[in-house]
Write a structure and sequence with these properties.
Blueprint: H1 3-23, H2 30-54, H3 63-79, H4 83-110, H5 114-142, H6 148-170, H7 180-244, H8 246-258, H9 262-279, H10 288-303, E1 307-313, H11 322-345, E2 351-359, E3 362-370, E4 376-378, E5 381-383, H12 391-402, E6 406-412, E7 415-421
Parallel strand pairs: 1-2
Antiparallel strand pairs: 2-3, 3-7, 4-5, 6-7
Helix pairs in contact: 1-4, 1-5, 2-3, 3-4, 4-5, 4-6, 6-7, 7-9, 7-10, 7-11, 8-9, 10-11, 11-12
Length: about 425
C-alpha cells in the first residue's frame, strides 16, 4: 500500500478541521479544547475504520458522513449556534481546493503523475493553512456577528460548491465527461456572485459616503453651536461691562446736557440702548447654555416677525452634555424658525411655542410651530427633498437615541409638533 495518498488524506483532514475551527468564532476554554480534541480523535478513528477495515475506495464518497457532518455538529455544540459552524465547515472545504488546484498546476507544468500531485498537496498544506489562519480567518470570523441574512449570503457560494463538487466529481462523472451544464455551472455561480458583490459594495460605499457627509455636516453644526455660544457669552460680558461703565456714560451725558448738546446726548443714549439690546441674554431658566440658545433664536424670530414663546425650567445640571443640549435645541429651533419664515412668505402668521422642563432626572421638550400642509413623513420621521435640509432632524434623532430617549414628530391643523423625552 502506497503511504503517500494516506498521508495526504490525513493532511487534508487536519487542514479542513483546523481551518473550520479557525473560521468558527468560539471562546475557547480548557474544557472546550478537550472536547474538540476528543471529537477530532473520534473523527479520525472512523476514517481509519473505513480506510483499513471497510474499503479505502469509498472513503471519499462517505466523507461527509464520517467527517463533515460530525465536525459541524461538534462545532455547533461548542459554539452553541447552528448556522455559522456549518458555514465554517463549508468554507474550509472550499479553501481545500486551493491546495488541490495549485498542486494540479505544478503537476501540469512538470508533467508529473498522481504521486507528484499528493506530494505537492502535502508540501503546500502547512504554508496555505498558516496564510489562511493569519490573514483570512479573522475576517471570516467577524461575519459570524452579522445578521443571519448576511451570513446566509456569505455561505451561499461554499454551499453551492460543496454540492457541485460531490454531485459532479465524486458521486458522478459529469464534470470529467464534459457535460456542458456541469462545466458551466461554477463559472455561472462566480459571475452571479461577482455581480452581487459589485452591487453590494456599491450600495455599501454609497451608504458610507452618506454617513460621512452627514457626520461632516453634524460636525459643522456642532462647531457653529460652539461659535454661537462663545459669541453670546462674549456679548453677555460686554453687557456686563456696559452696566459696570454706566457711571462713565452718565458723566458724558451730564456734560452733553450741561452744554446744551441735547441731540448728541439723545443719539448717545440710543446707541447704548441698541448695543445692550443686541447683546442681551434673556434668562429663561437656570441653565446658561439653554438661555444662550433661546435668546439667539428669540432675537432671530423677532427680526422675522415671528412670535416665539418660551416656558423653560431647565436646571443648571442635567443628564446630558452641554454640547448635545445646544445641538439638540439649535436644530429643533432652526427647523421651527425655517417653517415659520416659510409661512410668513405665504402671508400667514408664524408662531413658535417652546415648553421644556426637567422632572425626575428626565428632560421633556415640546416645540410647536406653524407649518404648511405638505409635510411628508417616512416611518414617523419628517423628510424633505430640499438640498441641504433634513440633517437637523437626523441630528435630533441621533442625540435622543444616544441617551435612550424617545422622540415623536406630528403635523396636524397647520402645526408641527416635536416632543422629546430624554
Amino acid at each position: 500500500m502506497n503511504s503517500v495518498p494516506l498521508i495526504n488524506l490525513i493532511s487534508v483532514g487536519v487542514f479542513g478541521i483546523i481551518l473550520s475551527t479557525a473560521f468558527c468564532d468560539i471562546f475557547w476554554t480548557r474544557k472546550k479544547a478537550l472536547v474538540m480534541l476528543g471529537g477530532i480523535a473520534v473523527i479520525f478513528l472512523f476514517q481509519g475504520i473505513v480506510y483499513f477495515g471497510v474499503d479505502a475506495d469509498i472513503i471519499e464518497e462517505i466523507y461527509p458522513l464520517i467527517t463533515h457532518i460530525p465536525l459541524a455538529v461538534l462545532l455547533c455544540i461548542l459554539n452553541r449556534k447552528c448556522l455559522w459552524p456549518t458555514i465554517s465547515v463549508l468554507t474550509a472545504y472550499l479553501c481545500c481546493q486551493i491546495r488541490r488546484w495549485l498542486a494540479m498546476l505544478i503537476v501540469t507544468v512538470f508533467a508529473g503523475g498522481s504521486v507528484m500531485q499528493d506530494i505537492a498537496e502535502l508540501v503546500m498544506t502547512l504554508p496555505i493553512l498558516l496564510i489562511l489562519i493569519r490573514f483570512i480567518s479573522p475576517a471570516v470570523r467577524s461575519i459570524s456577528h452579522y445578521p443571519v441574512s448576511m451570513q446566509l449570503q456569505f455561505g451561499l457560494v461554499p454551499a453551492l460548491y460543496y454540492g457541485f463538487d460531490y454531485l459532479t466529481r465524486i458521486y458522478t462523472n459529469l464534470l470529467l465527461d464534459g457535460v456542458l451544464i456541469a462545466v458551466e455551472f461554477m463559472p455561472f455561480v462566480c459571475s452571479v456572485a461577482y455581480l452581487l458583490f459589485v452591487a453590494y459594495t456599491s450600495e455599501a460605499q454609497q451608504s458610507r459616503s452618506r454617513l460621512e457627509q452627514t457626520h461632516a455636516i453634524l460636525n459643522l453644526q456642532i462647531e457653529q453651536a460652539v461659535r454661537e455660544i462663545a459669541a453670546l457669552r462674549e456679548s453677555q460680558e460686554k453687557t456686563s461691562i456696559y452696566r459696570h461703565d454706566m457711571r462713565h456714560h452718565m458723566q458724558y451725558l451730564s456734560a452733553c446736557i450741561e452744554n446744551g448738546q441735547f441731540g448728541q446726548a439723545l443719539a448717545y443714549i440710543q446707541g447704548i440702548c441698541s448695543e445692550i439690546e443686541a447683546n442681551e441674554v434673556t434668562v429663561f431658566c437656570e441653565n446658561e447654555a439653554a438661555n444662550l440658545i433661546f435668546s439667539t433664536f428669540a432675537r432671530r424670530a423677532r427680526e422675522n416677525g415671528i412670535l416665539m414663546q418660551v416656558q423653560a425650567r431647565i436646571p443648571r445640571l442635567i443628564p446630558m452634555s452641554e454640547m448635545d443640549l445646544c445641538v439638540l435645541l439649535s436644530n429643533a429651533l432652526e427647523n421651527a424658525l425655517h417653517a415659520c419664515i416659510d409661512q410668513r412668505k405665504r402671508g400667514r402668521a408664524g408662531v413658535i411655542e417652546v415648553s421644556v422642563y426637567d422632572r425626575r432626572e428626565k428632560l421633556f421638550l415640546q416645540i410647536i410651530n406653524s407649518c404648511g400642509e405638505d409635510v411628508t413623513f417616512v416611518k414617523g420621521i419628517p423628510v424633505t427633498n430640499k438640498s441641504g435640509h433634513g440633517i437637523g432632524v437626523r441630528s435630533i434623532c441621533a442625540i435622543v437615541e444616544q441617551y435612550d430617549g424617545i422622540y415623536t414628530f406630528l403635523a396636524e391643523d397647520g402645526q408641527f409638533i416635536l416632543r422629546i423625552s430624554i
